[in-house]
Amino acid sequence: MDQSALLDHQFTVAAYAVTWAIQLGYVAWLGFKWRAQKRSASRTARNPR
Amino acid sequence: MKKLAIGLYVALTVVLMVWGFYQAIYVAPDEQTMHEVQRIFYYHVPSRWSPSSSSPSRWPAPSDTSPSAATATPGRRSQTPGALRRRGGRGLLHGRAHHRPAVGTPRLGHLVDLGRPPDHHPCPLAHLRQLPFAAPLAAGPQVQTLAAVLGIFGALDVPIVYMSNRWWRTQHPAPVFGGGPDSGIKDPRMLHAFGWNVLAWLAWGVLILALRYHVERQHQKLAAHEAQQALDA
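^ inputs. structure came back:
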């Protein structure tokens, strides 16, 4: 495999990996928000002011 | 029943994603001029179309818990600085990877450095949308005004970006759709790979939109409940 083809391959892998890192990172972040809200809701239900 | 339907939809989306990936990497033939790096196209275009058609899927959950947020319209855009920042840069990363290689261009650096001056981009204006994200923004009416301005600029940006690879011929490949008699996807295997990925990314976009909507509604209900409790106390 010549240098150019190797670079093309690495570039393609990086593009796909970065795309999924962003997408899954966003889903994970939403998941954390969701979990934090659920905890907050149950805490509010347990300790009404 | 509802959980089953959601589970089936998630499974269908995952299957579509895997199938689209397989089509793009293993089934679609090698493009004659760009070779392997052209396969980025099968992700780059559908993943950009998907948020364009369901843009709320890219709305981040708000980080403020003010009572005013509780009365916000469902699905309303968060106006926090983080929200503005995240809304702008996504999708540019792999888009830059799609640029044609050129002598003297640090390609990987080009891929990851969003703050880089637009010296190699076909549309220098496209980088203007990053400017507001650099400054620290305070929450409040000022941020809302900036968000509105950014929204208008984003709308104006769409035709500019669409036309940019015609107006500024640099590293970005020539237009595939609507680019003249030689444009278009000629090989049916390429067309299939592209179509499957459009479908897969659309399914993914709807899934993220539903998740995002659920989180936003939960946040609003919780904030409204807390505000009511404070009033009752």
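The radius of gyration of chain A is 21 Å. The interface with chain B takes residues 4-5, 7-9, 11-12, 14-16, 18-19, 22-23, 26-27, 29-30, 33-34, 37-38, 40-41, 44, 48-49 of chain A (CB under 8 Å).
thumbs up if we can close this ticket
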